[in-house]
Amino acid sequence: xxxxxxxxxxxxxxxxxxxxxxxxxxxxxxxxxxxxxxxxxxxxxxxxxxxxxxxxxxxxxxxxxxxxxxxxxxxxxxxxxxxxxxxxxxxxxxxxxxxxxxxxxxxxxxxxxxxxxxxxxxxxxxxxxxxxxxxxxxxxxxxxxxxxxxxxxxx
Length: 155
Description:
Elements: H1 2-17, H2 25-41, H3 44-51, H4 64-96, H5 99-122, H6 129-154
Helix pairs in contact: 1-4, 2-3, 2-4, 4-5, 4-6, 5-6
Domain Lysozyme inhibitor LprI-like N-terminal: 62-147
Signal peptide: 1-19
Keywords: Signal
């Protein structure tokens, strides 16, 4: 538990130590446009490969904190869609009687995501690079879950 707190603390420090991590409306719209466009002709894996790095990619030559900030900004943009697509998922699950199962699965996903991202963070023995590993993990897993929701609802 202390390690998870350290990861979350490092991510929070990175986000307050430099640039803003709140996505712009354009960031959020770009992700939606990419998901809908690639998703119309491709599978979830293709959407993930095409639509991640839209925000963080241009930051790859920055400092560790700039890279982490961009990854967290992108995570927050994906999280916006995850939350938006959660609402119709919930409505559908309540209508078909699977709400408790969906809610339990989502709670377990959050625990699993946090554990996996801590392992990614902890895989680097010290140093600021671990913040990038943890932030990239959160972005990737959040994007994958949002894409999964999108495909469940609209494909």
